[in-house]
Amino acid sequence: MPVTVTRTTITTTTSSSSGLGSPTIVGSPRALTQPLGLLRLLQLLSTCVAFSLVASVGAWTGAMGNWSMFTWCFCFSVTLIILIVELCGLQARFPLSWRNFPITYACYAALFCLSASIIYPTTYVQFLSHGRSRDHAIAATTFSCIACVAYATEVAWTRARPGEITGYMATVPGLLKVLETFVACVIFAFIGGPSLYQDKPALEWCVAVYSICFILAAVAILLNLGDCTNILPISFPSFLSGLALLSVLLYATAIVLWPLYQFSERHGGHSRRYSDVGCSNRHAYYVCNWDRRLAVAILTAINLLAYLADLVYSARLVFVRV
């Protein structure tokens, strides 16, 4: 059975898809005239314009450009699917839990567009010569920022409020799970080359920590999206609490070991950026090893804070089976 959450009391409320108190309208074109429907149209438009501008001039060469183009195309496609489902009233036939899927996707989309809005201009646009391609790339970045704000607004509108019964993914711990898995994916992207950790047991342990915690958080998300939380051998609340505690302990070791073995010269690291010969020159589409090490260290700290907040919020919430 699905798990729902309330902070203090169980109440019967009329859920609003917009989060603004208006009644939900499904299976009708009128759904597009509601605040949430208009917001999703803005998401659809901004992502469509972003990838169209870039595609029209071919300004998406290299790994970073490919990542940005994938982000905008993916967000456009899934947003279009959500609009079609709501316009046709197909929520009950959708293979995933409709109470959890839209807000989970909106949170991921906000993070995806945020990453594209930062990565694309800093690793690609600044290296373009002045002209039509650069102008299109700058405009695409602007629309990517608009999409990010639109998706973040949807998350703010539809997240759980005190006293409201809703799906787990709409609660703060559920949204933190999205953040944790997204940050882990970015970490994996930065450590894609084994040269950063190979033949160093302490660093290999850090990679194992990132992998284990990512898998556990992803399992929690998938169980909620599939309404399969009852298949666990233990209660789902106990699983969530144990997951958060275990992840905090594991990340606490990684936050110590990764910087120690990457930046301490006594342990074979590089304490200064200039000591890494690969960072001496500026290259388009390329991030040198020292910068990658620093990025992973920062992201490790971010995820540790996310898991700490997850542990605190999970302890405060009261889980109720319905």
TrEMBL record:
GO terms for cellular component: cell-cell junction; cortical actin cytoskeleton; membrane raft; plasma membrane; ruffle. The keyword Membrane applies. It is a multi-pass membrane protein. Coiled coil: none annotated. It is found in: Membrane. InterPro entries: Marvel, MYADM-like. The keyword Repeat applies. Residues 1-22 are annotated as: Disordered. Keywords: Membrane, Repeat, Transmembrane, Transmembrane helix. Its main location: membrane. The chain crosses the membrane at residues 38-63, 69-90, 102-125, 137-157, 178-196, 202-226, 238-261, 294-313. One of its GO terms (biological process) is negative regulation of actin filament polymerization. It holds the Pfam family MARVEL. Residues 31-163, 168-319 form the MARVEL domain. Belongs to the MAL family. This is Myeloid associated differentiation marker. It comes from Neovison vison. The gene is MYADM.
